[in-house]
Structure formats: C-alpha cells, structure tokens
Amino acid sequence: MKAIFDDIGSFPLPGGITREWVSENVSTKEYEELIQRTFLLKAKVVQCPNYPQFQDMIEQFMSIIRNPEYQEDAYLVSRKHAVIREVEAIKAMNYKSDIRVCITGPFELYYREFGGVIYEDILENIAISLSRFATNAMSLNVCSLSIDEPSLGINPELQPSAEQLRLAYEPFSFDVDIQIHLHSPLYYTQLLEVEEIDVFGVEAARDEKVLEFIDEEELSSAGKRIRTGVARSDIDSIIAEFNAKHNVNAWKDAELSVKAVNEIENVEIIKKRIEKAYDKFGDMLAYVGPDCGLFSFPTQESALKLLENVRRALEVLEWIT
After folding, report:
1. Domain containing 303 — which CATH number?
2. Please, what is the angle between helix 300-316 and helix 254-264, to 10°?
C-alpha cells in the first residue's frame, strides 16, 4: 500500500485579499466562492486535499466555542453550531472525491485560552465541541481527520497527564484515519496508547534527522502509522537560499518565487525524501506532503508549484499514476 498525498491546510490568499477581509467576510457568498476556487486548485494536484484554511487556526474554532449563544455548557458548543465554514462551502459544490479535514487540537485551543494549568472539565468540553465540528464534516468523503497540536512537545508549560490525553482524544472515534499533526516528535511516545489516534504527522523535510526520533518498532507494536513531511514549507529560507545563489530578490517577483520553489524543492530532492521515509517505515508510511501549511508563501502559484513537485515525485515513483 502506497502513501497518500495530502496537504496540511493553510494556503496563500489571492493577491489583494487580506486576513482582515477574510475575518469580515466569512459568512458571505464571496468567501464561499473563494474557498471553492482555491480548493479546486489543490484538488487537481493533491490526492486528499485539505480545505483551504484561510482563517486564524485558533479563532476559527474558539470564536464559535466560546460564544454563549451557541453553548450547551461552558465551552461546549451545540452540534448545530459546530460548523466549519470552509467545509460547508465544499459541500455546496456537491464534491464527491476525497477530502482531508483539519481541526485545531483541544490542547492547543485550551492552552491559548487558559494557559498551562488544565481544568479537566473545560478540556473535555472543548474536545467534545471539536468532535462535533468533525461529525458535521463527515457527510463528505473524508479520507482523514487531522488534529493540529503544535504546542505538544514544544511548550514546556503544556504537560498533560495520561488521563488528560484520554479526555482530549476519546471523543474522536470516527471510521476514518485520525492524524495528529505534531510540530515536534518528542511527544509521540506519550500518545502511542491513545486508541483513537491512527497516524502521527511529523515535519521531516526541513530537518530529516527528525525521523530518527521515531522508532518504527514502537510504532508497529502500537498499530500506528506515520505521515511525514517530504517538501519544505519554510518559504523564507527557501527564497533566501535562492536569492543568495542568484543575487536576486524573489520576494519582489512572483515568477522568481515560483522558480525558487521549483529549484530548491525540486522533484528529485522530494523523491529522495519519500524513498528515505519508505525505507524506514515501509507500509506504515500512510501519508506524505508538505511539512506544514503554505499560508506564508508569496503567491498561490508558488504554493501550487510545491504541491505539483510532490505529485511529480510520486508519479516518478509510480505511487500515483
């Protein structure tokens, strides 16, 4: 079984559109059409594309969860209000192919709202609320549900107990692959016993040594699989490297920014990363794609070039035909 090509979610806005415009227009037809157009761009390339995540990853969910008009209890949103606007836009297209749905994780939301001292009743309500957003997305053909937890393993103030891990992830019992996207592999061992998690997502393109922290025998014994980044998303470094090499400023030239991505993250480099990951994990390698979201890329065209190069690398390997 060959790994599936997905993407993390965030994507550059078209020229002339800002995050402020997004926050003011989330409920409008114009925003719905923006989501649909951008999603179809990704869907032409990516096997399991994530909805375009243009909103702030915290407020996208917390602005709804903390709204007392939508709550059944403190930080427990009713199911009818647990709606991902972007998912609803894709439903409106009557889209039938695979889609990846990402949600910001319960620990990330809790930490941003309350800090490192964990009150379990509130954590549990946030987790149940997030599971309701996921439930409402399941009428689409969801290939994987990804829980984004960037602070786990990075922030020393966030040290949940085994019971708190259970409370946070127990509500995510769905008949799809449940990924957890970790920005550091240091915490994965504490999550091996969490039954609901199927796939660990790690960022390994920028620093391939990250894969050395993952023990394939532990992973196999726990019945888990892995999603690894095979294309860098640190666009500042990519363009800086290109600029230094060619004595240009690709930030000021849209065409040059595409060339920078195509040169620094070329098909052969990405192919070698995929091969290295497969050599280590074999069939436990479930998903591949960019390390992280692509919102900071200068243009949609430069972000698409990265996705296209991942696709071409997989085609060379005959993982996609």
Report:
1. 3.20.20.210
2. 30
